[in-house]
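We read letters as residues; the fold follows as tokens. Both lines appear below.
***
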Amino acid sequence: MSEILLVAIDESQQSLKAIDYSVKLAGASNFTIVLLHVQPKISTYYANKKIGKSNLLKHKEEEAMKILEKGKNHIREEVQVQAKWRLGITAREICAEAREIQAIGIIMGTKTMKKVKGRLLGSTCHSVICGSPCPVTVVS
């Protein structure tokens, strides 16, 4: 079984850059790429009442699949790719998935590379770095 790189993606351009970087690594080392998208969990009374819990979950799955399909279609090279989605708090779910699949690394983009109040990374990247069971590479 090949080693696994977990690539956390969303709809941003930075995610496509993270995919590009992971493809370079995977091609050189025969890694498997697992694309992961996390949909935020929304469990408000209003949303459940107006839309219905099953419809809300179906919508989230459809949105996740669109993002994952875009990510898979972005890959032109011959590399092994899997796509997964999870529901919950983004950083926690990325770290949990990395543990479960025993990823050797996480690659992700960041939307916030501007220095704001002494911080260089966005809160999701920072939380993943702090909670990750493996090395994290942030692509800008």
About this structure: The longest helix spans residues 53-74. Residues 6 and 127 are 16 Å apart (CA to CA). The mean pLDDT is 89.
